[in-house]
Amino acid sequence: MTTAGQQAATASPAPGRAGLLARLVARPELGSLLGAGLVLAFFSLISDQFLSTLGAATWLDDSATLGIAAVAVALLMIGGEFDLSAGVMTASTALITSLLAVYAGWNVWAALAAALAFALAVGALNGWLVMRTGLPSFIVTLGTFLALQGLNLGVTRLVTGTVQVSGIRETDGYAQAGYLFASTVQVGGVPFPVSILWWVAVTAAASALLVRTRFGNWVFAIGGSAPSARQVGVPVVRSKVLLFMGTAAAAWLVGAINLMRYTTVQAGQGVGLEFQFIIAAVIGGCLMTGGYGSAVGASIGALIFGMARQGIVFARWNSDWFMLFLGAMLISAVLVNNAVRRRTERVRR
Prior knowledge:
By secondary structure, this protein is mostly helical. The chain is about 75% helix and about 5% strand. Helix 4 runs antiparallel to helix 14 (about 295-315), helix 5 packs antiparallel against helix 6 (about 110-135) and helix 9 packs across helix 10 (about 215-225). The protein starts with a helix and ends with a helix.
C-alpha cells in the first residue's frame, strides 16, 4: 500500500528536472530553434541539394549579412527601441566608402573609417533625439531613413551623374579590404564566404555582451522599464545611444561586406532591409515591447530567413511564395513569443 504523499512524489517530476524544463521553455531562442529544425527538415525532403555542402554554403551566406545586422537590432529591441534607418545605412556607408575611394582617391581603409565614423554619428544622433525629445524611435528613425535615402540618391547623382558607383576594385587598399570582408574559406572543396565567420563572431560578441556584462543587465532593465532602471542608477540615455550606435556599426559592416564582394553599390540599395532585420529578431524571440530576447535567437531567426529564401529556390518554386512563408513565420513567432512571455511571468510569480 502506498501513501498519498508517496503517490504525489511518484506523479510529480523531480524539482530539479522541473526547474530545468521551465528554464528551457523560458529561453527566448527555443521557439526559433525548433522552427529552424522544421525548416531544415522540410527543405531537405523537398530538395536533395539543400543539405549538400554547396547548398549549405548558399543559405548560410544568405543568412550571414542579415544575421549581423539582426543581432544588433535585437539588442536595440531588447532595450525597447527600433531603428528603421539600419537598412538604408548599409547603402549609405557603402556609397561613402566607394565615393571617397573611387572619386576622391582615398585609400579604401581610410574611406571605410570615414564611413564608420558617419554611421556612428548618425546612430548617436538617433539615440540622442529619441531620448531628448521623447519621440518614439519609430518616428525618429523613419525620418533618418528618409533623409539618408534622399542623400544617397542626391549625392550619388551629383558626383557620378548616375545612381551607382563602381570601380572600387582598382583603388588602393582594395586587395587587403577585400580579403578581410569578401574572401572565401574552402570547406570540402566548396567556397564558404568569410561573411559567415563575421556573423558568428558578431553573434558571440553580442551574446557575451548581453549575458556576461553589466551593460547587458542594463539593456534588459531599460527594455523592461526605463523609469525603474533610471531610479536604480542605470545610465539610460548613454546606454540607448550606444545601442543605436551599435546598430549603425553593424549596418556599416554589412555595407562593407556587400561593397567588397560586388564592387558596385546602387543609391537605392538597402531599402526594406530594416524590416527583414526586425523580422529576424522577432522570429528569434525578441519581444516588440522590449526587455526580452537574445542575440543567438536573432541569429537563428536570420538562419530561418536564409534557409527559407534559398530553400524555395532549390525547390524551384515561385519566389512569391517566400513572402507568404515569411508572413506565416512572423505571426507564428509573435504568438509563440507571447505565450513564452506569459509562461515566464507565471514562473516568476
